[in-house]
Amino acid sequence: MSTSRSSRRGFVKQVVFAGSGLGAAAILQHHADGTVQVRNLVEAAKRPVPAMIATLEPDLLYPLLCSRDVRRWQATPSAWLLLAQDPQHRRGLDEDRLQSTYPRTYAYLKQFEPVLRARAAFRRYYTRRQATGVVETGPFYSMFGVGPYSLAPYKVVWHRMRAPIGAAVVGPLDTRPVVPQETHAFVAVEARDEAFYVAGLINSTWFNVAARACSQAGAKSFGSPHLLEHLRIPRFDPADPVHRHLSDLAERVHKNVSRQPTGEWAALVAQLDASAARVWRLDPAAWREVQVGRSACEAEFGKMSGAV
Taking the complete model, does pTM exceed 0.70, yes or no? Predict the structure, then answer.
């Protein structure tokens, strides 16, 4: 990784699948044979689909962070995502393998084959024209925008359309990596301490003030990954005491989020801003100006009643 960091907007086109009411699900019951009973979330569908209860193998179900699930320092998945995808090859799992290894899951998807093949993302990214006609380059349940980063164990995630930016750290849930929905941007990392380091920088007043200078607050793309092309996040160095201090502070803020807006909470946030300033080697003389920016950010967080 370079001295700056890029982010991935999670499952950019996969939401066409999850949002179809076929990929997003609620687990209703765990069976003794290891299978699970699920209900597809038709209330999130963009087009009419039948409500179904099905029994599936659990192996391809991942915790899903929906739009409402992420707030500043808080992220709790409220659904599950059926992900029959090979992240390394960026296409659906081989159809014969899916049918033989996960027959219940395959049968469930097969019922909706015409709907899944009709997806705009599938036609755009998994078909190509040849002299003999249109050829499919992936199984009908393939999802665009899924890579190894999608199943990274730790992620720093934030809602890309909300200002100020409010990031949260999310780690594995029962050993399963959590997957953010399309309305979120995220940075994928391998270690917990690095995740809190990145979240501490992104949630700092310095970052939010700078974000407002290079992106339009209120726009749908305000918090999109392009921000990290302009706002430098230095590479985490676990041997650097300044980096470790910021990571530890961010984890303390995360653990004490229920105590806001107490004096203890405010003191932790002030320490976090000061620690972030040391990481970026910012001029302490600028601190007074940033205090004004912090007050403006906190006022907006208050107006939004914690919805960030």
Answer: yes
